[in-house]
Write a structure and sequence with these properties.
46% of the residues lie in helices and 9% in strands. It is an alpha+beta fold. Belongs to the 'phage' integrase family.
């Protein structure tokens, strides 16, 4: 009959020491047959369970002491013996689990790393460093706090919703772009072999059933715009101000262009003789070259601007780099405040009553086209470089109507400068 080890207490185990010579020594602790404490010459301690599995003798490690207490070691020993009685080899089970973990780690990829690798793989599609930075900034601000550390194969629809829902109604356009970017990263991860199954950020047949359409809630996301009747007064106040920021804002208003397009404008993009500004595709939101016919007012502005040696920017910042978006926003705020300070109403949006912002000038232009002129709406959409809404419309808009738009932009400049305050009489161009 085998000897039964004396059951030691926690204090007894704590007092056990290495004799000071030889190799590792073991001390049976009782409570579970085969359980002992191993002590190395250096004093390190760990739990061992000696058992027979089939025809093999095994020594199974149960963890180090004191991280694993005596009571915990006895519980682990009993669980291990239960597995053996049920025909499970704990050693082989552990090896298989470790191999599966290594395989998973090799195949696994966090969403944060997937974003970096996606952008690296898609450099040709994102040649503009600022475009790549916008991608990264949007994901960093909204997606990475939730999805960043997650493995891409573990991301579900609920995880994507957790990112989108807080901003879907208040920042609809941003949220819509964010969804598309998450979908693109996860699609790349699937093709690259890092995840399987449906894309949880897909819209059709997926998030479409859980979120309201962006077009239904986007109204709350509109940028405050200068009212049509206030536009000439606003433009006169702007022209009375000095500074490169004011000139950039003036040019943006005359061209109905986006802030980033104006701030990044290069002299090489502008043909003063032809009166044309050609913005390359990599600087456009829709990744398509955009031609802007320049009115006489816009050309006059450009001709009097100073040009700085070794600086290709049309509207550089004081230190020579690209002007920040805040510069134009600050110019708008100053115009509003100055008008209020002298007893005026300021320059506020008709619906929201919020002070107008630079991007809202594009809405002012679009409203002027719709309400005060007979120019075709699709021609205004081309001027604004908006995405074509349907295949039918696209078939009629293979060109960019640059010659027709030249007259429209001249009429807009006349309205802003006060040359046509009574009303713009424009015939529909066939």
């Amino acid at each position: 009959m085998p000897l039964i080890a004396k059951e030691l207490s926690a204090l007894d185990v704590k007092r056990l020491t290495h004799p000071g010579r030889g190799r590792n020594v073991t001390f049976p602790v009782g409570g579970v047959s085969g359980l002992s404490l191993q002590i190395t010459p250096s004093g390190a301690r760990s739990w061992l369970l000696r058992v027979r599995i089939g025809n093999k003798r095994r020594e199974i490690g149960l963890g180090g002491y004191p991280d694993v207490t005596l009571a915990q070691a006895r519980d682990r020993a009993r669980e291990t013996k239960d597995k053996i009685r049920n025909g499970i080899d704990p050693v082989e089970e552990r090896k298989a689990a470790r191999a599966a973990l290594v395989t998973a780690q090799r195949r696994g990829l966090s969403f944060d790393d997937a974003v970096d690798r996606y952008l690296a793989a898609k450099l040709d599609a994102h040649k503009n460093p600022k475009h790549r930075q916008q991608w990264r900034n949007t994901l960093t601000q909204y997606a990475l706090p939730e999805l960043g550390p997650m493995m891409v194969q573990d991301i579900t629809v609920q995880d994507v919703l957790r990112v989108l829902e807080p901003i879907w109604r208040d920042k609809t356009e941003t949220a819509s772009r964010l969804r598309g970017r998450i979908e693109a990263v996860l699609s790349w991860a699937t093709v690259a072999g890092h995840r399987n199954g449906d894309n949880p950020a897909r819209w059709r047949g997926n998030l479409k059933e859980l979120l309201p359409a962006a077009s239904k809630v986007k109204k709350g996301d509109n940028q405050p715009a200068v009212q049509i009747d206030d536009a000439p007064r606003w433009f006169a106040a702007l022209r009375a101000r000095d500074g490169m920021g004011s000139r950039a804002l003036e040019f943006a208003a005359l061209c109905a262009s986006r802030s980033q397009e104006v701030r990044g404008a290069l002299w090489e993009e502008i043909d003063l003789e032809q009166g044309l500004w050609i913005i390359p595709a990599e600087r456009m939101k829709m990744d398509r070259e955009h031609r802007v016919p320049l009115s006489d007012a816009a050309l006059t502005l450009l001709r009097v601007l100073p040009r700085f040696e070794n600086n290709p920017l049309v509207f550089p910042a004081p230190r020579g780099g690209e002007m920040s978006d805040m510069t134009l926003s600050a110019a708008m705020k100053r115009l509003h405040k100055a008008d209020v300070d002298v007893g005026g109403p300021g320059f506020v949006d008709r619906a929201s009553k919020r002070p107008a912002v630079p991007h809202g000038l594009r809405s002012t232009f679009r409203d002027w086209i719709a309400e005060r002129t007979k120019y075709p709406g699709e021609m205004a959409e081309v001027a604004l470089a908006h995405k074509i809404s349907s295949a039918v419309e696209a078939s009629y808009r293979r060109g960019d109507m640059v010659d027709k738009r030249r007259e429209m932009m001249a009429a807009w400049a006349d309205y802003l400068t006060g040359r046509n305050r009574v009303g713009t009489k424009v015939l529909r161009i066939k």
